[in-house]
Amino acid sequence: MVGPSHKREAVKVLVEFGLSERAACRLVGIKRSSHRYRAVTPKDGELRQLIKTLAYKHKRRGYRYLHIKALKAGHKVNHKAVQRIYQEEGLQIRKRRRKKIQVVRQPLPAALMPNDCWSMDFIHDTTTDGRSLRFFVVVDDCTRELLAFEAARSMNAKAVVRHLDNAACWYGKPKRIRSDNGPEFVAYALAEWTGDDIDHHFIQPGKPTQNSKVESLNGKIRDEFLNENQFRNLEDARQQAQRFRDEYNAEREHYSLGNLTPLEFKQKIMQTLSA
To answer: What is d(CA 6, CA 38) in angstroms, rounded to the nearest whole number?
Structure first.
C-alpha cells in the first residue's frame, strides 16, 4: 500500500541523488502515477456540512429525511449522494427494536379534511428527580398537525377539557374525536363538552391500533423527543414540549403527506378548497 512515507522517500531520492523520477520511483517501489497524485478537495463540502448539521439536530431521522431538507435548502442532489455522505460520516442510527405484537387491524373512517377527526392520548415520562410526567397529545387525523402537547404531573378530565377547548379556539371544533377508555376520557366533564355536536368514538379495550394516528405519533414523540431529552422540572418539560410541537408542525415533513409538513399540507388543502 502506497502512503505518504513512500512519497517522501521518492522525493528524498530525487533531491539527494539526482535520479530521474522513473528511477526514484522504481527504487522506492511505487508507481509514477502514485507519486504524481495530489489529493482533490471534495466538491460536496457545503452539502456535507449541512447534512452533518441536520443529522445532529434530527438525531432520530434517516438519510431520506435529510435529503428532503437538503432539497429545501437549495441543493440539487439525489438521495444516493446524501446516503453516501450519510454513511461516510457514520451518521447511521441504531434502531430501537421492540417485540412485534400480532393484532387484528380495525378499519378506521378516513379523515379527509382538517377537523374531521381528532385523536388523543397520554404518554408518560419522568423529570430528572424521578417524579412522574404526563403529556396530553391531540393530533388532527387528516393533516397530522399536533394540536395539543401539554405536560403536567397529573391530568384529570377538567384539564383535558381545558386543553381541548383551547385547541378548539385556535383550530375550530372537530366533528368527532377518538380516544381510549381512560378515566379522563369517559368522565362526565368531557361528555358535557362534546355535547350533541361532536361524536366521541371509543376504541375497544386493549386495541390501541384502532387509534393508530395518535399511537404512531406517540412512537415518534417517544423516539425523537422523550428519549433524546431530559426534563429538570415541569416548567422545563412544558417549554421543551412547546418547542417540539412548533418544530413538528412547521418543519417535520411526512412521507404520507407527500413530503410536506402538517402546516404545508393544511395550507394546500385550504388553497384547493378556495380555488
So the answer is: 14
Q: What are 139's three cell numbers?
A: 393530533
Length of the chain (residues): 275
Q: For residue 22, what pLDDT is reported?
A: 77
Residues 188-218: tens digit of each pLDDT? 999 999 988 899 999 888 888 888 899 999 9
Determine the straight-line distance between the first and last CA of the chain, rounded to whole angstroms.
66
| Residues whose CB falls within 8 Å of the CB of residue 176, separated by 6 or more in sequence, listed in order | 116, 117, 118, 198, 199, 200, 201
Calpha distance 67→82 (Å, rounded): 6
Bigger pLDDT: 119 or 47?
119
Residue 260 predicted with pLDDT over 50: yes
Using pLDDT thresholds of 50, 70 and 90, give the confidence band for residue 179. Answer: very high
Q: Exposed/middle/buried for 152, CB within 10 Å: 0-12, 13-18, 19+?
A: middle
- Rounded CA separation 216/34 (Å): 54
- Rg (the chain; Cα; Å): 28
Count Cα atoms within 13 angstroms, Cβ side, for 158: 0
CB–CB of 266/114 below 8 Å? yes
pLDDT of residue 205: 84
Exposed/middle/buried for residue 121 (C-beta within 10 Å: 0-12, 13-18, 19+): buried
Q: Tell me if residue 115 falls in helix, strand or coil.
A: coil
CB distance 153 to 131 below 8 Å? yes
